[in-house]
Amino acid sequence: MSAEPVDTSVPAPVRLRPVLEGDLDVLDRYLTDPEATGAFEWYGWSDPNVWRRRWADDGLLGTDRSMLMVCSDTETHGFVAWWKVVTSRSSFCWEIGINLLPEARGRGIGTEAQRRLVRYLFAHTQAVRIQAGTEVDNRAEQRALEKAGFTREGVMRSVTFRDGAWRDGVLYSVLRDEAMDQGR
């Protein structure tokens, strides 16, 4: 009796976890390898030790900005991050971002990782709003955000300078009540 073939395009359950020291080599790729970051995230060379210093300082889990690794049982797929955006003198929201390694893209991992991050932030912080932005041409990330429960709010004109040109972005958000209503 032969075993059923395993579909390797569908990852084992996606999980988020704190950054371990061994993950710093993976994170370094995002600062030194344009192909690792992808077309919409390469902003040029930057300090290759920035994450190592932050990891030594707070394990990349700070009060105003943090990062978790996106993993399955046997693979590290990339990371999710969030940072505080002050919206008035007495309030803030979180903005989130994600970057997956090239071999993890297009497999639904980003959608699930962003769902899990939303759930985590609403469970462990008092924020009522989580937002995410992406370039207007990054259709894959827009689909992932929509599948993760985010609502498109609008276009931000000339918001990002990348590869010699100003680029328009799209802003998405999800509110606490929406996420709770949808079981996210």
TrEMBL record:
Q: Which UniProt keywords apply?
A: Acyltransferase, Transferase
Boundaries of each N-acetyltransferase domain copy? 14-177
Q: Which residues cross the membrane?
A: none
Q: Which Pfam families match?
A: Acetyltransf_3 (PF13302)
PROSITE patterns membership: GNAT (PS51186)
Instruction: Report a single Gene Ontology molecular function.
Output: acyltransferase activity, transferring groups other than amino-acyl groups
Q: Which Gene3D superfamilies match?
A: 3.40.630.30
User: InterPro entries under this entry?
Assistant: Acyl_CoA_acyltransferase, GNAT_dom, N-acetyltransferase
Q: Which family does it belong to?
A: Belongs to the acetyltransferase family. RimJ subfamily.
Matching entries from PANTHER family are given as: [RIBOSOMAL PROTEIN US5]-ALANINE N-ACETYLTRANSFERASE, GNAT FAMILY, PUTATIVE (AFU_ORTHOLOGUE AFUA_3G00765)-RELATED-RELATED
Its name, as the record gives it, is RimJ/RimL family protein N-acetyltransferase
In the record, what lineage is assigned to the organism producing the protein?
Bacteria, Bacillati, Actinomycetota, Actinomycetes, Streptosporangiales
